[in-house]
Specification:
CATH architecture of the largest domain: 3-Layer(aba) Sandwich
Strand order of the largest sheet: 7-6-8-5-9-10-11-12
Number of strands: 12
CATH class of the largest domain: Alpha Beta
CATH topology of the largest domain: Rossmann fold
Length: 390
């Protein structure tokens, strides 16, 4: 084999494939292409997805300084849909075309490399959107979703806007918003009691959020509001909610067992809106979650809002959504947006949960630091295009 003959590497991940390239060809190797391939498993048991990387040793014209990152050669922007790139192999580039493409992709690969994201370089990320792709990854947007968003942007931006940051940012914001669903704020009808319960793990701010919702419902909507707590496990939990109830001048009832929840709701008197504050439950504690399900089965709330903290990691948030799913929640409340360094993980979690977002909380202040969810606003927050505190 000629020392400059391209070689093909296949691995389960792009990072693993690039590691093999570095091992065999050194850090100065030129990446000619990457693509996803499928290979049938042993004995025909399904298919396995692999990443295929084609690389070549450097020659005198492409040899970079010692220690430079792996470089890649990209295809120029084409009107062909990105998905088509997976269906057929790209034609082998000629030497003049190879030299021309090398320079164009150099900048995008260097940018990804500086961001520490070279392992995510894939064929369906246009070179002119490499910076956008790297930015999404830095925001903790899940990698598959980052690729999908970049493809949407590539299809929606006109050719003459491809180098206009404002046009790209606007297209990206629209693409993110399309992956979000929001619910209207809690509504109450005078004379017709509506019951709303908040559930979630410990430490996400349920009690404070209940107080914010109650204060806004009374002060802004003029509704008669009552509070019920079933959180008799946490030290001083009842007293915390009682303090809020006294400040806002609301009735409060306590239910320490599922068979007492209906009595507690009745003790509130003629209210338009009853808000139930539940005890925080660990996603791993199936017994406690089943106990909470018993409370909800007796209360039969009109709405159940799952409260998620923006400071939690993506895996933890997915676990919460999965473990609390048997409770039948139909809304999401995102709290502590003011405390989170990055909000990109929320995009994947909200999209996967398949439930609309009802409220965002941006601080501890009652009743001010809460806002009804707005899809465009949430997209801007996730992308860092707007500040939490406007």
């Amino acid at each position: 084999m000629s020392p400059t003959t391209p070689r093909t590497y296949r691995a389960g991940t792009l990072k693993e494939a690039l590691s093999r390239v570095r091992r065999d060809l050194g850090g100065s190797a030129v990446i000619l292409g990457t693509r996803e391939v499928r290979r049938r498993r042993l004995l025909g048991l399904g298919e396995r997805e692999l990443i295929e990387v084609t690389a070549a040793p450097p020659d005198d014209r492409t040899h970079p300084p010692q220690g430079a990152p792996l470089r890649a050669v990209s295809m120029p922007r084409s009107p062909v849909a990105p998905a088509a790139l997976h269906e057929t192999d790209p034609p082998r580039p000629t030497r003049p075309a190879l030299d021309d493409r090398l320079g164009r992709l150099h900048e995008s690969v260097d940018e990804l490399s500086r961001a520490g994201r070279i392992e995510h370089l894939v064929v369906d990320v246009p070179a002119w959107l490499a910076g956008t792709y790297a930015h999404l990854l830095d925001l903790d947007v899940p990698e598959p979703m980052a690729r999908r968003l970049v493809r949407i942007v590539a299809d929606s931006v006109e050719p003459d806007e491809a180098h206009q940051p404002e046009a790209i940012d606007a297209a990206l914001r629209r693409a993110v918003a399309l992956n979000l669903s929001v619910a209207p704020p809690i509504a109450g009808v005078p004379g017709a009691r509506r019951v709303v319960a908040l559930v979630g793990p410990t430490g996400v701010g349920k009690t404070t959020t209940v107080a914010k919702l109650a204060a806004n419902a009374k002060l802004s909507l003029g509704l008669r509001v009552g509070l019920v707590t079933v959180d008799t496990y946490r030290i001083a939990a009842v007293e915390q909610l009682r303090t809020y109830a006294e400040i806002i001048d609301l009735p409060l009832a306590v239910a320490d067992a599922p068979d007492r929840i209906l009595g507690a709701l009745s003790d509130l008197g003629p209210v338009d809106l009853a808000l139930i504050d539940t005890a925080g439950r660990s996603p791993r504690d199936e017994v406690k979650i089943r106990e909470l399900a018993d409370f909800l089965a007796m209360a039969r709330p009109d709405e159940i809002h799952l409260v998620l903290s923006a400071v939690s990691g993506e895996k933890s948030l997915h676990a919460v959504v999965e473990r609390f799913a048997p409770l039948g929640f139909d809304r999401l409340i995102l709290t502590k947006l003011d405390e989170a360094d990055r909000l990109g993980a929320l995009l994947g979690v909200v999209s996967r949960a398949g439930r609309p977002v009802s409220y965002l909380t941006i601080g501890q202040g009652v009743p001010d630091d809460i806002e009804s969810a707005d899809r465009d606003r949430l997209a801007a927050l996730i992308l860092g295009q707007e500040a939490v505190f406007a």
